[in-house]
Amino acid sequence: MAQLDTREKLAILADAAKYDASCASSGTTKRNSAGKADGIGSTEGMGICHAYAPDGRCISLLKILLTNSCIFDCHYCINRKSSNVRRARFTAQEVVKLTLAFYRRNYIEGLFLSSGIISSSNYTMEQIVEVARSLREDHGFRGYIHLKTIPDADPELIHQAGLYADRLSINVELPTERGLKRLAPEKSAAGIAGAMRGIKGSIDDGHDAKKKYKSAPRFAPAGQSTQMIVGADSANDGEIVTTASGLYDRFGLRRVYYSAFSPIPDASAILPLQRPPLMREHRLYQSDWLMRFYGFTPKEVVSATGADGMLPLDIDPKMAWALKFRENFPVDVNTAPREMLLRVPGLGVKAVKAILLSRRWRRLRLEDIGRLTVSVAKLRPFITAADWTPTGLIDRVDLKARIAPPVKQMELFAA
């Protein structure tokens, strides 16, 4: 490997880390004030992403790989062993110095560190742990640390990582075991599940110990998360939703992240030639929200899919469910319980909370509901109010066409 300076390594390893969605930031246009008479700032800072802390704060993280070299040859990975990409590697101390330098300049508030696997899983995990240990113990670093752990590593190394990190994550990679065997045969679904189970056990033990002893060491106080790739294998949305629900139930995950497969250079012939629609990724996040915050069961979300097991792309999953199960509507906004109001298309958690509070003082009219949502037209077929009854509207054959957002022609030369 050619000798590279720190800036060159950062450019390579920050770019390689962008495929990990579990520390995602919103995309924007590139802007830079360097060399200009007026203006300040840039959107091109290498390796800086935005994430949310457990208390809801948006924080900036240095997001990099320890190395993009890897002994595994997963078909979907740009950093796989057989990939013809430029390689780089940081030492543990280089990552520590870089993190502290960025932090002192107020560029970041924490670190997201992942890595390809070099030499062995244990060796790589030792280097990742050493970064976190040095930051915490040698330099008293109190910022946020998210470590991507390696499931095949020794459980004791993963446990050590949890003592230094705020959050740990292990990627399940693909939604189904058959997909993992086909596209990442060197990885084991059982091994990944075992490592996630071990982290959950340590988190639970840490909570119990903290109740008894104030001085008990914390273990990954921000919990654990995972990521799965969407569209690289034949798994449909129904299978993905079912897998995600099982992960939440079995391992107490804070988040399941979905990453739409992106074609890579010199790709394997068994991979699809095109990436799935980004809207598919968005619909999966919406279905995830339905299960986590709206009281939907996995079976109910799956029932909103079509015959091919896919969620519709033109309408959101809640709307798809409501159109399939029209017998549950209309819902009276003045008497319906919270769980039914949450199932009304167009009503979010905050709007439902406001409805429950307001109706204690007077009967709500349609215009009152309109103040709580972006478009009351979307709500009309599904609710009744003091001055509104959707006579026969819910039974219309063309209901979907009436409420679905209109198709727009994209501009060829749009900015």
From TrEMBL:
Task: List each coiled-coil range.
Answer: none
Residues annotated as domain Elp3/MiaA/NifB-like radical SAM core: 60-286
Q: Which Pfam families does its entry note?
A: Radical_SAM
Keywords assigned: Iron, Iron-sulfur, Metal-binding, S-adenosyl-L-methionine
SMART domains per record:
Elp3 (SM00729)
List, alphabetically, the Gene3D superfamilies matched.
Aldolase class I
Entry keyword annotation includes NAD: no
A Gene Ontology molecular function term of the record? metal ion binding
Q: Which CDD domains match?
A: Radical_SAM
UniProt keyword Aminoacyl-tRNA synthetase present: no
Which prosthetic group or cofactor does it need?
Answer: [4Fe-4S] cluster
- Fetch the SUPFAM superfamilies from UniProt: Radical SAM enzymes (SSF102114), RuvA domain 2-like (SSF47781)
- The molecule here is called Putative DNA modification/repair radical SAM protein
